[in-house]
Each structure stands twice: as structure tokens, then as C-alpha cells.
Specification:
Largest sheet: 9 strands, mixed
Number of helices: 10
Strand order of the largest sheet: 14-13-12-11-7-10-9-8-15
Structural class: alpha/beta
CATH superfamily of the largest domain: Dihydrodipicolinate Reductase, domain 2
Order of helices and strands: EHEHEHEHEHEHEHHEEEEEEEHHE
CATH architecture of the largest domain: 2-Layer Sandwich
Number of domains: 2
Bound molecules: nicotinamide-adenine-dinucleotide
Radius of gyration: 21 Å
Distance between the termini: 40 Å
Shape: globular
CATH topology of the largest domain: Dihydrodipicolinate Reductase, domain 2
Helix content: 25-40%
Length: 363
């Protein structure tokens, strides 16, 4: 298979590693476009079989093959134009999260992908397929919770701002015009991908939302720093069978309050809570037993082997292009998930509730 990476920074290196893990190296042809010579040279030093270009359009100018994949791994401000370039070259496109910068761009990309019968994928599915999440899905599928009515999805991180505490050399994360936003645009794609996989909503209402930017004594003053680092929203999910469920969502990358995580679903007959993405592998199932609450906790580990969560977007997308994948996030679902996230921003900004519907879902 032929892969065309756009951007040779941190994330593109993880994609290149995943490609080589997923496919034997003799099956891989890897090209990479990056305008900054130093970044390109470092990438080629790490992956000597890759062919480097200074310009993405030049790299994509050769005739496409049916299973060619373009991977956009640049800062978000250029995702739209580069993903469009990839689709226009006749290739499937896997785009880093966030998919794009606004709703209209997501609609235009989806339209372009569909008109060309190509897949437009988003990398926000990194944590799908995780063993503990599969265990939660199984409890839901077996209706062990009865009717789920509330999900609590809170991740409060004391200090973890990209561009400051994390990857401090990539200051673009702090500049809204380049990143699209702060903690919501950074973590929201993963969180929404997971919530939307668990509950399969056809419509999401954002009933209320707010954002904030707590300050610290190490906030940089030599660059733009205008993104939110704390967000919360109350969401109402509507499923295809007419059911509703409330989602209490909160994320922060910096707080002067206490850090904690709560990931829990409550239903009429039971509840399930699980460890956050990184903190562990346990899932706790609580229910009633003769009038008292009883609970059991099990741990679920991912199979020992080659693939980690950073490899998932590429390996799922390769599977999708070759045949199918239960975890690839593509086309309507990718656009819908992105629009759910943008509706949280819109609600926080306008203080008006917002509604997003999955394209093609029955009314
Ligand atoms: N860093 C992470 O841990 C991480 C994890 C998951 C997803 N992501 C996502 O990956 C994307 C890139 O993040 P990163 O951490 O790799 O950033 P980075 O700063 O390490 O790399 C981005 C690269 O894109 C290049 N670039 C910019 N404009 C370009 C263009 N027009 N054509 C080709 N290359 C161009 C830059 O020169 C840079 O080398 C973002 O959307 C980010 O949200 C990052």
C-alpha cells in the first residue's frame, strides 16, 4: 500500500511506526511532505525508506491507486485544505483530530469524500476498541444497566496544557487561529468519539456549556495564548429508538481545584464506572441486591502485542480501506462527532442551546 503523510512532526512519526507495524515493510511505500527542512530531515533519518517532499501537492501529483491513503498530521488550521487536496487527488484521507476548524469545513469535506466515493477518516478513534471500553459496551449491550439515563464524563487534569506542560515546543496549540481551540479541541474528539460509540446518538442537544482559562505563573508571554483550558457541558443524547440520555461532560488541562476523573453510566437497573484512558484497566459494575447496592470490579487488559492506542487510527483505517473495521471513524460519523464538539463551543459562546443531527439518520 502507498501512504502519503502530510506533516513530519510528532504525530506523523507515530503514524509511520503504526504503518510499519501493521504491514510488512516490503508492502509499504511511504512518502512525506513537510515544508520545514529540519523536520523533514529528522523524519527521513528516523524512516530512511520514506521519500520526502517540500510540498504536499507535488507529492500527490502522481496517479492514485484504489487503496492509497493520505494522512494529514499538521496543525488543525491547515487540515481542511490538505484533506481537500488529498481527496481531490483521488485518495482516501485520514485526518488528525480535530477534523477541521469549523462546521462548514466538515460539511464540505464530507461532501467531497462522498462525491468521490472515498473514505474521510478522523484519528479521534485512538481509544476505541480498548478492552475495558469493550467490557462497558458489553454490559450496555446485555442491558445489565436497564435503561441508561445519565453518563458522567469528567477528566480534570491539574497541569497538562499542550504547548506548555506537554510538548512545549509546539506553541501553536495555544493559538486559537492555528489550533481551533484548547482543551476541548484537543481532548473533545476522543471523548465524543467514545461517548458516541457507547450510545450511538442520532441527535445531540447541547443544553448548556461554558469555557474558562485558568492562569498560572508560567503562562507564556512570548506567543499567542488565547485558548480555553477548562470546559463543561450538559448534553442530551437522542438515540434512534427515541430514548434520551443526559451526559455531564467536563474537561480541564489546568485547574486550581482538585484533579479527578469520573467516568460512569447510570441506568435504571445498574451502573458502570471505569478507569480513565490511562489510569488503569478496571471496570466496576454496581447493582441492587435485596435492597442494598452491591458492586464487582474486574480488570481488562489489552492483548499483549504490537499495537498501542497511538497505532489505532492508522490500523483501523487501513482495515476500512481494505475491507471493513468496526472502529474506523469515517464520513458521516466523523463529521457528526466533530460537529457535536463545535456545538459545545457555539453554546458556550452564544449561551443558546445547540442541536446537531447525524446526516442520514431517520427523523
Ligand atoms: N502531539 C500529540 O501528542 C498529538 C496526539 C494526537 C494527535 N495530535 C494531532 O496531530 C496534529 C499535529 O500535531 P503534532 O503534535 O504532530 O504537531 P507538530 O508541531 O509536532 O508537527 C506538525 C508538523 O506539520 C507541519 N506542517 C505545517 N503546515 C504544513 C503544511 N501545509 N504541509 C505540510 N506540513 C505542514 C509542521 O511544519 C510540523 O512539522 C494536530 O492536529 C494534533 O492535534 C497530536
Amino acid at each position: 500500500m502507498r501512504f502519503y503523510l502530510i506533516g513530519a512532526g510528532f504525530i506523523s512519526r507515530t503514524h509511520a511506526e503504526a504503518i510499519y507495524k501493521k504491514l510488512p515493510s516490503e508492502e509499504v511505500e511511504l512518502k512525506v511532505a513537510e515544508p520545514f527542512e529540519k523536520s523533514l530531515a529528522e523524519f527521513i533519518a528516523a524512516f530512511p525508506n520514506a521519500i520526502g517532499y517540500g510540498d504536499a501537492a507535488e507529492m500527490l501529483s502522481e496517479s492514485p491507486r484504489e487503496d492509497d491513503i493520505v494522512i494529514v498530521g499538521t496543525p488543525p488550521a491547515v487540515h481542511f485544505e490538505l484533506a481537500m487536496l488529498g481527496l481531490a487527488s483521488g485518495r482516501h484521507v485520514l485526518c488528525e483530530k480535530p477534523l477541521v476548524m469549523d462546521k462548514q469545513q466538515s460539511e464540505l469535506l464530507l461532501q467531497e469524500a462522498k462525491s468521490r466515493s472515498l473514505w474521510l477518516g478522523c484519528c479521534s478513534n485512538r481509544f476505541l476498541g480498548d478492552a475495558k471500553i469493550e467490557a462497558v459496551r458489553e454490559l450496555l449491550g446485555q442491558r445489565k444497566l436497564g435503561e441508561p439515563y445519565k453518563a458522567t464524563f469528567i477528566h480534570r487534569n491539574e497541569r497538562g496544557r499542550p504547548g506548555i506542560e506537554y510538548q512545549p515546543w509546539s506553541r501553536w496549540f495555544l493559538d486559537r487561529s492555528r489550533s481551533g481551540g484548547g482543551v476541548l479541541i484537543d481532548w473533545g474528539p476522543y471523548d465524543i468519539a467514545l461517548l458516541n460509540q457507547l450510545f450511538a446518538p442520532v441527535q445531540v442537544d447541547v443544553l448548556s456549556a461554558w469555557t474558562a482559562r485558568p492562569l498560572t505563573q508560567v503562562d507564556p508571554t512570548d506567543c499567542v495564548n488565547d485558548v480555553e483550558q477548562h470546559v463543561a457541558a450538559m448534553l442530551r443524547y437522542h438515540t434512534a429508538d427515541g430514548k434520551q440520555l443526559m451526559v455531564h461532560y467536563e474537561r480541564c488541562n489546568v485547574t486550581h481545584g482538585a484533579p479527578y476523573t469520573t467516568t460512569e453510566i447510570e441506568g435504571t437497573e445498574g451502573a458502570v464506572s471505569w478507569d480513565s484512558y490511562f489510569s488503569g484497566d478496571s471496570v466496576t459494575y454496581g447493582r441492587d441486591l435485596e435492597g442494598s447496592r452491591t458492586s464487582e470490579t474486574h480488570t481488562y487488559s489489552n492483548p499483549e502485542g504490537t499495537f498501542g492506542f497511538m497505532d489505532n487510527p492508522v490500523r483501523y483505517f487501513i482495515d476500512k480501506v481494505k475491507s471493513d473495521s468496526a472502529y474506523a471513524l469515517v464520513n458521516e460519523q466523523a463529521a457528526f462527532n466533530f460537529q457535536c464538539m463545535m456545538a459545545i463551543y457555539a453554546c458556550a459562546e452564544t449561551r443558546e442551546p445547540q442541536t446537531v443531527r447525524l446526516e442520514g439518520a431517520p427523523v
